[in-house]
Amino acid sequence: MKYKTLLYILLTVSIFLSGCVDITDSYKPGNFGATEEESEMVNAITEKYGDMTQDGEPRLLEVMMTSSINNFIPVDKVLKYSKDSDKLYVWFVYDNFNNDVLTIEWTYLNEDYLIHTFESETGEDFGRGAFILEKPDSGWPIGEYEVKITGSGVSESVEFEIIDGPTESIPLEILSNDVALINSESGNEEELIAPQSGFEVEETDYSFVGEWTSNWGDMKFERSGNQIIGEYTHDKGKLVGVVNGDIFIGTWSESPSYTGPNDAGDVELKLSSDGNSFTGNWRYGSEGATWSGGWTGQRKE
What domain of life (predicted)? Predict the structure, then answer.
């Protein structure tokens, strides 16, 4: 296996505040919060973790894998990558660092093989980090992987799989404007993402699970843990997401790459009151408010 031929790209760590040092040891004005998506992210992070301009202990937040990064914002949260994926992306937020060095280790767990280690200097306080590993000439070995981020006495890691199948991802919860709290079967509260397409969440006794005909071909949904996964005939399509009331909120992906923005994106579907049909919207990627088209289906008898 040509592990040593792995190519890699190191994305510059974007700094939140004007005047902070990026990883190339140059200075530039930050633009965090300049766009609607960035404003939404900084508000969500502040609400969840507190004011990041305050002093405190170093910490690493929201470490995740994603299928792509746009304007230094992850488009989704990847659980499993397709072996055909060209790039693997890890994304995170660092806080209370002072020009410290972060190490980002990529390991193939099946053979305990250290693929590569990035080293990058942080800014004077907080910022975002994104690091990319490109597919080797011989392809990705199927199995378990880990990315471990360490610096200034703290460490966080994220594990993921590479599989012989389509990439499996879920919407990015931290960028959801509204989050609904519901009671799970165990009695614990769970956070569910609110729809972005204007649908109103309503209670229902029906489920998406089952077989359907749709304008994108025959479809089938089934439950997998806390998720709903599905497939449809058009371009060997795949669906994965969660259900909030009567609305499926998730991502679609199709051959050949099963990655965004051309072969994957967001989808939201709303069940009819009798549970026998649905209407919805889909879009390429996860950016902006514009939906690319409609999605309708009828339950098979």
Answer: Archaea
